[in-house]
Every structure is written in structure tokens, then in C-alpha cells.
Amino acid sequence: MERADDRTPEQEITHHWLVVGTDSFMSNWGRAENGTSIAAWACEYDDVKRVTEWVESRGDMKRVRTVIDRKGERYSPRGHGHLHIYVVEDNHPSVARHREFQAEMAAADKSAERRRAAQAKRIAATA
Predict the structure, then answer these.
(1) In angstroms, rounded to a whole number, what is the distance separating the alpha carbons of residues 116 and 119?
(2) Which end of the chain is more exposed for a tag (fewer CB within 10 A), N or C?
(3) pLDDT tens-digit profile of 101-126?
(4) Separation between Cα atoms, residue 33 and residue 1, nearest integer Å
(5) Helices (H), 17-78
(6) Threshold 0.90, pTM exceeds
(7) What is the sign, positive or negative, of the torsion defined by CA atoms of 89, 13, 36, 62?
């Protein structure tokens, strides 16, 4: 099986969870001629559920599963074909909205903390 991995050496350590799907559209032609095309999205553990839901929602992915791919424990599908490992970063559609929500919550927490500090200061000044 031919393997293409888009991860950097650092991402191979942090992004060792793969959400894998058999690509029914790309199988049996191109780099997967007479074989299976397998697409995998490397992500951090906290993103596995969101990435899995995103891959499952695609119409071209069959047999969606989660595997580990790290040094000493490489994911190696059997047979002839092509495996491509993509990287899920903060701007990936499967996690982008969640990242935006986290940022909004952090900003709201900071704003609330500033209000509490200002209120405490006013109370201390009148005491």
C-alpha cells in the first residue's frame, strides 16, 4: 500500500489518532488503481468524535473507523492501493466551529472576570 502522510514530525506525536475511511469514489483508479483508496484524518484525541462525525457525514466514505498511528504502531492497511493521511488543524471544518465557540467562551470568561474585579474595586473604595 502506497502511503502519503501530510503530518510534520511534531504532528506525528500530537496527531496520532486517525479517523479512517475507505474512499469509494477514488478506489480502483489513479494512485489506487486496481486497489483501495483509503483517506485518514490525523487529529488529537479531543477531536476524534467531531472528526468521526464529519467523516461519517461524507457520502464517499465507507467503513469509517478510528485507529492509532504512531512510531512503533503504524497503521498499515492490507492490500494494494493508496493511503493518504491528512491533518486536522484548527481551521478544519470538523473542528472550526468548536474552536470558535471555545474562543467566544474564553472571551466571555475574561469579560466577566474584569467586571467582577471592577465591582470588587468599587466596593473596596466605598468601604
Answers:
(1) 5
(2) C
(3) 566 677 777 777 778 877 878 878 88
(4) 11
(5) 48-57
(6) no
(7) negative
Q: What cell numbers appear for 17 in the block?
A: 489518532
User: Per-domain residue ranges for the chain?
Assistant: 2-89, 95-127
Residue with cell 490525523: 42
- Give the Cα separation of 32 and 120 in Å (integer): 65
Distance of alpha carbon 6 from alpha carbon 126, whole angstroms: 60
Locate 49 and state its grid cell.
468524535
Element (H, E) at 81: strand 81-87
66 Cβ partners below 8 Å, 6+ apart?
17, 18, 19, 20, 48, 52
Distance, in Å, from the CA atom of 101 to the CA atom of 107, rounded to the nearest integer, reads: 10
pLDDT band for position 39 (cuts 50, 70, 90) = very high
